[in-house]
């Protein structure tokens, strides 16, 4: 008889202001498609991604696409319940969406936590980096310090359009979630395998499970 599979069911929140590309990121990651014509999410939407995570492990990701217009409303507490990880997304071409990031982070930290009482791991996604010259490109290097100071598990420049760093960001979050579930500190675990980043945004990403701030 073979070794039984270990399954991890992970509820992951995807939050950020309206129009930052949350739905595009999820559709690219789950269904390998991209469209410029998604309608704004109303309330919350869902997607499921099943991954073979090693020879004996399966990860089932429930991705909850939270509407940007929720804006930290009362319903978010219900949506956030039982989440074990999150992405906060901002649009590198709109400074206001980055300014909203601390409020989204505070909202998550105040409404959801792990069974241990620790905050859930959160990855910051600087999305639409294919349009970087139009936006906040000169400011992005400070994200290392911003994420360290604000308790993020890491950050990545992403582009749903060009499919940049989305798989890598998801892998980083999964490593953090599994480490929390197993009660290990993956920063000190020599068995954690580093992801290989092969695209042009390699220097503009950071995962606490994959590199030091």
UniProtKB/TrEMBL annotation:
InterPro entries: P-loop_NTPase, Rab29/Rab38/Rab32, Small_GTP-bd, Small_GTPase. One of its GO terms (cellular component) is trans-Golgi network. One of its GO terms (biological process) is endosome to lysosome transport. Pfam families: Ras. PROSITE patterns: RAB, RAS. Keywords: GTP-binding, Lipoprotein, Membrane, Nucleotide-binding, Prenylation. The keyword GTP-binding applies. Belongs to the small GTPase superfamily. Rab family. This is Ras-related protein Rab. It comes from Pleurodeles waltl (Iberian ribbed newt).
């Amino acid at each position: 008889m073979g070794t039984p599979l270990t399954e991890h069911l992970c509820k992951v929140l995807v939050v950020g202001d309206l129009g930052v590309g949350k739905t595009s990121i999820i559709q690219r990651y789950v269904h390998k498609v991209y469209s410029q014509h998604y309608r704004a999410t109303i309330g919350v939407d869902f997607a499921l991604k099943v991954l073979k995570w090693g020879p004996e492990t399966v990860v089932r990701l429930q991705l909850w696409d939270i509407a940007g217009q929720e804006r930290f409303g009362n319903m978010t507490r219900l949506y956030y319940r039982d989440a074990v990880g999150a992405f906060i997304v901002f649009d590198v071409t709109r400074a206001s969406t980055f300014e909203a990031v601390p409020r989204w982070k505070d909202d998550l930290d105040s409404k959801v936590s792990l069974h241990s009482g620790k905050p859930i791991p959160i990855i910051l996604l600087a999305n639409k980096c294919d349009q970087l010259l139009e936006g906040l490109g000169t400011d992005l290097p400070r994200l290392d310090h911003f994420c360290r100071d604000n308790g993020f598990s890491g950050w990545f420049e992403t582009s749903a359009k060009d499919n940049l760093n989305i798989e890598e960001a998801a892998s980083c979050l999964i490593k953090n979630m599994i480490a929390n579930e197993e009660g290990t500190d993956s920063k000190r675990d020599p068995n954690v395998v580093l992801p290989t980043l092969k695209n042009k945004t390699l220097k503009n990403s950071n995962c606490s499970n994959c590199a030091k701030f």
